[in-house]
């Protein structure tokens, strides 16, 4: 219970007097109704219901529960009748709220409009953070984004008002930081249309990344399905010191679990070491998962679900939530004797600073060894750009630690040798670090403070210092470092690490700089070492909320007009997908047989394509243009088997569709890892795809494919991937009798006339099969109205 007491103490220290406070009464009864946030006074925290559900499940299972299980099972739609078996059964859940970033919110709101429902059933918010491109600096880039994206922002603002959704305007900050500051609290279950949603787990929450169609289900008041997650326990002992930071924990875990090792699991941190880490420092965990560890694990899972097994201090929790949480404290910690599916132990006292990359977030190296490893592999040692901030690592504490290093360099007459950028996670962080002098220090050392937005982390970076194809190294504190992720340059070697290591390497200008042992040369020629970074967990003068950027939805929004021009190239109303015809799919072409890693960035690129996220036909022109074709090792070059000519992947898909030819994609392991973007499922469906056949899927992408009426199938024998040739035809048989757990058969017809059959597996449950038969989950929803 020590962790719980520490949490309450930190909560009270964090209360302050800032404008973002939302609980203000001095006296409180544990049974009183407490608002979930200051923005939604009529929506209250329901720990009583969660407590009731937990007790029902505990009696049924007759065993101790992890914290993860308590929160998940506490949100069951039917705790008495729900079959519960980790890793096997599907749970029907009732999340507390929904959050959407602007790039995914466009399609989510278009789908909600198509549902015909008048208003969302749970508290929901839209956050404008993805469409702001980093070019010059914060104010200039924000103003340009407002002008360029005016049509989209107006659509989102009016749709939010009409359907009862809160709207965070451009410049508010990144969705995950806003959630952390305003909406997360111990025990809440939140789903967000972004794979980095697990950021909120730092507050003892279950925050899960999903596709837009999942968000529509929850906003429509329909129980949301999730395969019962396994629980991976990470036991922390010891305490951090010196250059080691909480981010090093997740970097280490990513190296252990890899980008797919957390698929279908929640990662729960527990042990005495948790007590020594602050709430904001615990966003680290999202770095991993989301990053899917940085990753890919991105979610980390699949889940992109991550959370701590102890309560953490929440910046926005005040006395009332603290009192309620205290009353239900036994529901907010793991039971003694609970069991995890896997346990990883990390001694924080022995942990050293780490850096992961390049090209994947699970390639883990101690900072002390990265120089030698880079030289051995021919990776560029010169750090061209250091980038700190983003939704994961832009807390007040993070910025303070980075500024403490910058101040040391300035005192010695030095500035950064590399370019250096700073991304505040929210308007509150921007205003507070500006008031407290951190921004000036970081600017004086050579940094450029960017807008409160995702920016380079998601490829929204108008980079000018290198040419495309030029080999170079960048070091970031971001969430992912896939090929071309940040700057669209496949030759950029991107590494992820803590903000303090990024800052140190930007000052030194080289990847082989180890701040624990190496010296810098001051302007006067003196040799000196940087002292370990320091930073206050919370500002002594409370947070400065900055500008008010929140739009409340009106109590009645039916009169609000939401306009989508039929000639717009940014927005397009959705047409229902065709329904399954009740028979096997025969003679389908292989659009592309993908070689190696295929993330959602490969399937539906971000960066400049973000502008089309609300227009399905236009954004479909980027479908699979980043995937490597095994036939020729080229990207966006596949053979059109009707014409015999090569063309771009979307172009060939459109030609097949126009000629009534169904097609499939064949892929490798962990297909669709990375972002939660459902466009990676919508685009194949829109262009005539029927099935995606791979060795294994990332969780969110597999669900997104099901939601859109596609067949996500896996080889029963992974070696069967090698049997399929790019010029084959494939027939999938057994569909009329398809039931949960029953495999399908694929008949492969080779160009020489020979045939062979292989077994394909699926994870459909009965509800999901109804989506397939109806043509999509949205079609099925409308059938049931």
TrEMBL record:
Catalytic activity: citrate = D-threo-isocitrate
Cofactor: [4Fe-4S] cluster
UniProt cross-references to Pfam families, sorted A to Z: Aconitase, Aconitase_C
Function: Catalyzes the isomerization of citrate to isocitrate via cis-aconitate.
EC supergroup of this enzyme: lyase
Database matches in Gene3D superfamilies: Aconitase, Domain 2 (3.40.1060.10), Aconitase, domain 3 (3.30.499.10), Aconitase, domain 4 (3.20.19.10)
Cofactor binding, per record: Binds 1 [4Fe-4S] cluster per subunit.
Protein's UniProt name: Aconitate hydratase, mitochondrial
Subcellular localization: Mitochondrion
GO cellular component: cytosol; mitochondrion
Organism: Cyclopterus lumpus (Lumpsucker)
Residues annotated as domain Aconitase A/isopropylmalate dehydratase small subunit swivel: 588-717
UniProt pathway annotation: Carbohydrate metabolism; tricarboxylic acid cycle; isocitrate from oxaloacetate: step 2/2
């Amino acid at each position: 219970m020590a962790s719980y007491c520490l949490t309450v103490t930190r909560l009270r220290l964090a209360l302050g007097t800032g404008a973002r406070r939302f609980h203000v009464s001095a006296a409180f009864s544990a049974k009183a109704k407490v608002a979930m946030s200051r923005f939604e006074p009529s929506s209250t925290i329901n720990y009583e219901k969660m407590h009731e559900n937990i007790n029902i499940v505990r009696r049924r299972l007759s065993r101790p529960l992890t914290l993860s299980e308590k929160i998940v099972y506490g949100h069951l739609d039917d705790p008495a009748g729900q079959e519960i078996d980790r890793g096997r059964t599907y749970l029907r859940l009732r999340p507390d709220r929904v959050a959407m970033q602007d790039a995914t919110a466009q399609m989510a709101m278009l789908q909600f409009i198509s549902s015909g429902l008048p208003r969302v059933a749970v508290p929901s918010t839209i956050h404008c953070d993805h469409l702001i491109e980093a070019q010059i600096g914060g104010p200039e880039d924000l103003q340009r984004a407002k002008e360029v994206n005016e049509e989209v922002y107006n659509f989102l603002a009016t749709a939010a008002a009409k359907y009862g959704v809160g709207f965070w305007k451009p410049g508010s900050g990144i969705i995950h930081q806003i959630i952390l500051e305003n909406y997360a609290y111990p025990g809440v279950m939140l789903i967000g249309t972004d794979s980095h949603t697990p950021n909120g787990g730092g507050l003892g929450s279950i925050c899960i990344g999903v596709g837009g169609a999942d968000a529509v289900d929850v906003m429509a008041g329909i129980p949301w399905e999730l395969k019962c997650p396994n629980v991976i326990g990470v036991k922390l002992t010891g305490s951090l010191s010196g250059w080691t930071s909480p981010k090093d924990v997740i970097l280490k875990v990513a190296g252990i679990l890899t980008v797919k090792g957390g698929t279908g699991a929640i990662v729960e941190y527990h042990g005495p070491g948790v007590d020594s880490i602050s709430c904001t420092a615990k966003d680290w965990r999202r770095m991993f998962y989301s990053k899917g560890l940085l990753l890919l694990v991105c979610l980390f899972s699949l889940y992109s679900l991550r959370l701590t097994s102890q309560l953490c201090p929440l910046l926005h929790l005040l006395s009332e939530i603290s009192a309620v949480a205290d009353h239900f404290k036994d529901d907010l910690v793991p039971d003694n004797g609970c069991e995890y599916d896997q346990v990883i132990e990390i001694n924080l006292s022995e942990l050293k600073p780490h850096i992961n990359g390049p090209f994947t977030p699970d390639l883990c190296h101690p900072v002390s060894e990265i120089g030698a490893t880079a030289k051995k592999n021919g990776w560029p040692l010169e750090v061209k750009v250091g980038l700190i901030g983003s939704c994961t690592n832009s807390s007040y504490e993070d910025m303070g630690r980075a500024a403490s290093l910058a101040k040391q360099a300035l005192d010695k007459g030095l500035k950064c040798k590399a370019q250096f950028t700073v991304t505040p996670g929210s308007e509150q962080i921007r205003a507070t670090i500006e008031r407290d002098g951190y921004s000036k220090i970081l600017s004086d050392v050579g940094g450029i403070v960017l807008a409160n937005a995702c920016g380079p982390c998601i490829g929204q970076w108008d980079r000018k210092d290198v040419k495309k194809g030029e080999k170079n190294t960048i070091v970031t504190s971001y969430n992912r470092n896939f090929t071309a992720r940040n700057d669209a340059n496949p030759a950029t070697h991107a590494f992820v690490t803590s903000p303090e290591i990024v800052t140190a390497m930007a000052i030194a200008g080289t990847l082989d700089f180890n701040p624990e042992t190496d010296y810098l040369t001051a302007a006067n020629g003196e040799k000196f070492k940087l002292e370990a970074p320091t930073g206050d967990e919370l500002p002594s003068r409370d947070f400065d909320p900055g500008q008010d950027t929140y739009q409340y939805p009106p109590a009645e929004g039916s009169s609000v007009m939401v306009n989508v021009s039929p000639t717009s190239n940014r927005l397009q109303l959705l047409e229902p997908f065709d329904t399954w015809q009740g028979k096997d799919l025969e003679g389908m072409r292989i659009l592309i047989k993908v070689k190696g890693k295929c993330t959602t960035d490969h399937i539906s690129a971000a960066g400049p394509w973000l502008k089309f996220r609300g227009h399905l036909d236009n954004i479909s022109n980027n479908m699979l243009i980043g995937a490597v074709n095994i036939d020729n090792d080229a990207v966006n070059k596949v053979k059109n088997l009707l014409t015999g000519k090569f063309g771009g992947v979307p172009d060939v898909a459109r030609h097949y569709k126009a000629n009534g030819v169904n097609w499939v994609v064949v892929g490798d392991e962990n297909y669709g890892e990375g972002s939660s973007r459902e466009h990676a499922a919508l685009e194949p469906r829109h262009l005539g795809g029927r099935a995606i056949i791979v060795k294994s899927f990332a969780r969110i992408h597999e669900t997104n494919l099901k939601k859109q009426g596609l067949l996500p199938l896996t080889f029963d024998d992974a070696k069967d991937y090698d049997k399929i040739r790019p010029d084959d035809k494939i027939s999938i048989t057994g569909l009329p009798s398809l039931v949960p757990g029953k495999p399908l058969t694929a008949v492969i017809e080779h160009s020489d006339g020979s045939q062979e059959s292989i077994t394909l597996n699926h994870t459909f449950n009965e509800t999901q099969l109804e989506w397939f038969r109806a043509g999509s989950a949205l079609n099925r929803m409308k059938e049931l109205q």
